[in-house]
Design goal:
Radius of gyration: 23 Å
Order of helices and strands: HHHHHHHHHHH
Number of helices: 11
Largest sheet: none
Number of strands: 0
Strand content: under 5%
Helix content: 55-70%
Length: 218
């Protein structure tokens, strides 16, 4: 039966080409490409309507943010993403945008989104224009502060600790300031102590270094 269907398809394509010429073949190739792309996208991000579409406006397609104010979700550890969505939903982490959105998510939705963005490859912050002096100062602060102990080699994140490499500068700076001033808490309390010990200029330099750091496995 399958052989008969395949032969019928071949015959149909041959007939179209003979009757309509190359335009029909090009149309067939386009339709086949669209169908194949749609199937691949559905397998990756789920069927329509997609949960991930609600994230793209701020966090970019597949979690690659194009705005320094919004974090990239691509390549973030799934446990970290899930924990943050749960904290937004419960009000433990305040956000006028993420709070109401997270409250609409089921636990299955949270796990799906976390796994989806975790498997997307991280990319460099290509739109950030860095200053070499600030970058060098920030690199020393990151090394002296032992950031890799929690955030992993290359600061790519691990378990409950987020990827810092290549994140948006404005987002990183805002989070450091929020930790320093007690507006954001982390379960260990470590970030509050670390950020509070940094001067305003130090936090700026650290955010600068992290934003410029390419997320490449060491």
């Amino acid at each position: 039966m399958k052989k008969l269907i395949a032969l019928s398809v071949v015959a149909l394509i041959a007939g179209l080409v003979a009757f309509y010429g190359r335009d029909a073949l090009d149309l067939y190739r386009l339709m086949d490409h669209i169908a194949t792309s749609s199937e691949a996208s559905e397998a990756d991000a789920g069927p329509w309507p997609r949960l991930t579409d609600a994230c793209a406006g701020c966090h970019g397609r597949q979690g690659h943010s194009q705005h320094q104010q919004y974090p990239s979700l691509a390549g973030q550890p799934a446990p970290y993403l899930a924990a943050q969505l749960q904290r937004f939903a419960s009000g433990q982490r305040a956000s006028p945008n993420m709070g109401p959105l997270a409250m609409t998510l089921s636990e299955a939705d949270i796990q799906f989104l976390s796994a989806y963005f975790a498997k997307q490859p991280a990319s460099a912050n290509g739109s950030f224009q860095f200053d070499s002096a600030l970058q060098a100062k920030g690199e020393k602060l990151a090394a002296n502060g032992g950031c890799a102990a929690c955030h992993g080699e290359g600061l790519l994140g691990q378990d409950q600790f987020p990827r810092l490499a290549g994140q948006g500068h404005d987002y990183l700076l805002a989070q450091l300031n929020d930790f320093a001033q007690g507006r954001r808490q982390d379960p260990t309390g470590a970030m509050t102590a670390i950020a509070a010990a940094l001067s305003v200029d130090d936090r700026q330099a650290l955010a600068h270094y992290l934003a410029a750091l390419a997320p490449v496995a060491q």
